Amino acid sequence: MPAQDRLFQIVQILQRRRNRLTTAQLIAEELEVSLRTVYRDMARLQAARVPVEGEAGLGYLLRDGFDMPPLMFTEEEVEAIVLGARTVQTWGDRELGRAAENLLGKVEAVLPDRLKAKLMDAVLYAPDLGQRPQIRVDMADVRRAANDRRKIRLIYTDAAGADTERVIWPLGLAFLGSVWLIIAWCELRQDFRTFRADRMVDAEFLEDIYPRESGKTLRDFMQWMETESEKKLAEDCDKS
Q1: What is the model's pTM?
Q2: Do 49 and 100 reside in the same domain of the chain?
Q3: Edge-to-edge strands of the sheet including 150-157?
Q4: 154 and 215: one domain?
Q5: If you average pLDDT over every residue of the chain, what do you get?
Q6: β-pair partners for 81
Q7: Out of 61-75, 129-143, 169-183, 185-199, which region has the weakest mean confidence (pLDDT)?
Q8: Where would a tag sit more exposed on the chain, N or C end, judged by fewer CB atoms within 10 A?
Q9: Looking at per-residue confidence, does 19 or 159 come out higher?
Q10: Domain assignment present for 108
């Protein structure tokens, strides 16, 4: 990692841990560098009048009132933006794809030449290679329904090939490889269900707003998934 990028990373770590001493050891572990490198970088920051207080062996603290200029990116952060945007352009809905393209343009406009070249020549891609399944429902509408907490009445083809009608509470969307899943509370089953977007035959976006009901939220679903994963792990251990 170039020294300039590392200095920005250190300031970001200190900003993230405001009002708490941050040891050189913690910084070294996060950046995967030696303690000697951290001490040298701290001296550079202090010489550049970045208000870092502290010393080796005790820890460091960034005084209040200091903020890095906005949109200062490291090379890895630029690559993360490119990969994320290109993934959305390929696999997201049309509206998100346009938003990702606009994002790259805005980021490019504020980058220094060194990082602008990194953005333009990034080696990271997310092509579909003909593996993108056909989705008959506009996923932008599904996304808006989840944001607005509006119920959806859908016709869905289950794993056995039978069509079924459900009214769901769309809680979130998850992208797994080439498949979009709608995470939902199913009124018919009175339980959490995930629905593959490519198996949705039709959808009616209702005006009904579903409530924020304890036990039926996206957070509840994630906790349920974590519990189920732990159960499966325990069962696998018992079998071994």
Answers
A1: 0.66
A2: no
A3: 191-196, 179-186, 163-176, 150-157, 200-209
A4: yes
A5: 88
A6: none
A7: 61-75
A8: C
A9: 159
A10: yes
What is the pLDDT at residue 109? 79
> Domain total for the chain?
3
Tokens of 86: 């290109």
For 122-173, give the DSSP string.
-------TT-PPP--S-HHHHHHHHHHTEEEEEEEE-TTS-EEEEEEEEEEE
- Of 196, 176, 85, whose CA–CA distance to 134 is shortest? 196
Is 46 among the domain residues? yes
Judged by DSSP in three states, 207 sits in: strand
Which of 13, 36, 62 is where one domain is finished?
62
Question: C-alpha dihedral over 145, 149, 150, 156, to 10 degrees?
Answer: 70
> Residue 240's pLDDT band (boundaries 50, 70, 90)?
very low
Q: Quick one: 98 and 146 in the same domain?
A: no
- 46: domain CATH number is 1.10.10.10
The enclosing domain of 194 has a CATH number of: 2.30.30
Give the span between the Cα atoms of 217 and 223, in whole angstroms.
10
Asked whether residue 56 is domain-assigned, the answer is yes
How confident is the model over 159-195, as pLDDT tens digits? 889 999 999 999 999 998 889 999 999 999 999 999 9
Task: With beta carbons less than 8 A apart as the criterion, state whether 68 and 61 touch.
Answer: no
